[in-house]
Specification:
Layout: H1 18-39, H2 56-69, H3 73-95, H4 100-121, H5 127-139, H6 145-169, H7 180-199, H8 202-240, H9 251-275, H10 286-315, H11 325-329, H12 331-346, H13 359-381, H14 388-398
Length: 414
């Protein structure tokens, strides 16, 4: 009779790689700042560039967010997702524990949370996309780290390459770049979003969210799925290499990531902004698609540079990145809370502040919200092991209720 293989259990605090939690917290702040305009405006304009109508501090802040944060924060978060997968798989293999069923439930749980978020709270959800890629990640778990890296780069290049092909096709004679008909359709879609979110009740907003999911989100998977899965695999390969777990040994690699990743990312981003600072998806043109492609492509090297920078800082004794670690451990709870607070504040079924706040006021509100989340995280994790949504997710994943409260006399350091 063969003994059953024990399943994986939730990771304990001492086993966590602190740099991952700190980076996850920083990425969470970046995602919030990136999403501010989409909370307060039509989601179809989520990937647009710097609003040319903004002036003064609004324009300065919008420029900073677009240049320094947009496409970098979600890229960093995707790399960290892959790193978490590799860490979880490594623990399972080292302990001789079952992994496939656990990660399958974990991914299914994330998909369910993402659908609730996308349909019931905010249509700009990324969790469903991540969950779909997680299923593919599970199927690729037996590959070597070299194969992960090669396949990840290939998928990422395929996603950006597809966008480059679209840009190139738009330069050919007879290929439509969008005209009055496409512009009218984009304006109608924008008006529908404004009517539902700014003035409609909850039912109208929910109907619009579901429409957006099936009409826009799913269509976007042609590019987003290879990009996200590629980033997952690159992050997994980086984690398995031991670079973050033993930064002293891999200092040369980290310094190269910082130096060359920073230079390449800045160059691609600068080229994008120089070509078209305000690309729009309302009407496709060769220059707007090329600018967006360059901007997205700049996200990966800059995210790798950010990982290297934070890891090297922590290895050198810096403490300030650790202030973000508690929020990073509760990233899912905070991501959902940000959507709940923003939609309650701005949408018509809440306080109805849509269109009444300047961009500067929105950024300030986002910073205050994140500061409150950081303080709450530190308070919560001195008393509890996991964030509330993370605890429920783990309970579903491991088919048992993990201990939630921190034992008296064993408070966690956060």
């Amino acid at each position: 009779m063969t003994a059953s293989v024990p399943e994986l259990a939730p990771v304990s605090v001492p086993e966590r790689v602190t740099a991952l939690d700190a980076l996850r917290g920083l990425a969470l702040l970046g995602i919030l700042l990136s999403n501010v305009a989409a909370f307060a405006g039509p989601l179809n304009e989520l990937h647009d560039g710097i609003d040319p109508t903004l002036r003064g501090s609004d324009r300065a802040l919008a420029t900073f967010v677009y240049v320094a944060i947009r496409d970098k924060a979600w890229t960093l978060f995707a790399l960290l997702f892959g790193m978490g997968f590799a860490a979880m798989l490594g623990r399972a293999q080292a302990g001789g524990r079952g992994f496939g069923a656990v990660y399958l439930r974990r991914s299914a749980g994330l998909a369910a949370i993402g659908l609730i978020h996308a349909w019931a709270i905010w249509a700009g959800d990324i969790l469903v996309t991540y969950a779909l890629c997680a299923f593919a990640l599970l199927a690729l778990r037996r590959l070597s780290d070299e194969a992960w890296l090669a396949l990840g780069c290939a998928l990422y290049l395929a996603g950006t390459g597809f966008m480059l092909l679209v840009a190139a096709s738009l330069t050919l004679p007879g290929v439509a770049q969008g005209g009055a008909r496409e512009l009218a359709r984009a304006q109608a879609e924008r008006a529908a979003e404004v009517a539902a979110y700014a003035h409609g009740d909850y039912a109208a907003a929910a109907a619009q969210r579901v429409h957006f999911f099936f009409d826009t989100t799913i269509a976007g998977w042609a590019v987003m799925l290879p990009l996200a899965l590629g980033l997952f695999l690159i992050g997994a390969a980086l984690m398995r290499s031991g670079t973050l777990a033993d930064p002293a040994r891999h200092r040369a690699r980290l310094q190269a990531m910082l130096r060359y990743g920073g230079a390449l990312g800045v160059g691609l981003t600068a080229a994008s902004v120089a070509l078209e600072p305000a690309p729009t998806v309302a009407v496709y043109t060769a220059s707007s698609v090329l600018a967006q492609t360059l901007h997205i492509a700049g996200g990966l090297p800059l995210a790798l540079a950010a990982i290297a920078a934070v890891t090297l800082l922590l290895e050198a004794g810096a403490r300030w990145p650790l202030r973000f670690a508690a929020a990073g451990r509760m990233a899912l709870t905070h991501y959902l809370t940000q959507s709940l607070v923003a939609t309650w504040l701005l949408y018509g079924h809440g306080l109805g502040q849509w269109g009444r706040w300047s961009y500067s006021a929105l950024i300030l509100a986002a910073l205050l919200l994140f500061a409150a989340q950081m303080a709450f995280s530190a308070w919560w994790l001195r008393r509890f092991r996991f964030g509330p949504v993370e605890w429920l997710w783990r309970a579903y994943t491991y088919r048992r209720w993990p201990p939630l409260r921190v034992e008296r006399g064993h408070a966690q350091r956060v």
